[in-house]
Amino acid sequence: MEQTIAAISTPLGAGGMGTIRISGETARTVADRVFKSVSGKTIEQAKGYTALFGHVMDGDRVVDQAVALVFAAPKSYTGEDVVELSCHGGMAIMRETLRLTLAAGAKPAEAGEFTKRAFLNGKMELTQAEAVMDVIHAKGEQAARAAVAANQRALAKRLIQMKDSLVNTAAWLAAWADFPEEEIPEVEPAALQGRLSPAKDEIARLLATFDSGRVMREGVETAIVGCPNVGKSTLMNLLCGHESSIVTHIAGTTRDVVSEEILLGDLRLHLNDTAGIRETDDTVEQFGVQRAKDRLATAELIFAVFDGSRALTDDDKELLTLCKGRKAVAVLNKSDLPRQTDEQAITDAIPRVAVLSAKEGSGVNELKRHVEELLSLTDFDSDCGMLMNERQRDCALQVQRCLQECEDALQMGLTLDAVGVSLDGALEALMELSGERVTEEVANQIFHQFCVGK
Ligand SMILES: Nc1nc2c(ncn2[C@@H]2O[C@H](COP(=O)(O)OP(=O)(O)OP(=O)(O)O)[C@@H](O)[C@H]2O)c(=O)[nH]1
Ligand SMILES: [Mg+2]
Question: Whole-model pTM above 0.90?
Answer without folding.
Answer: no
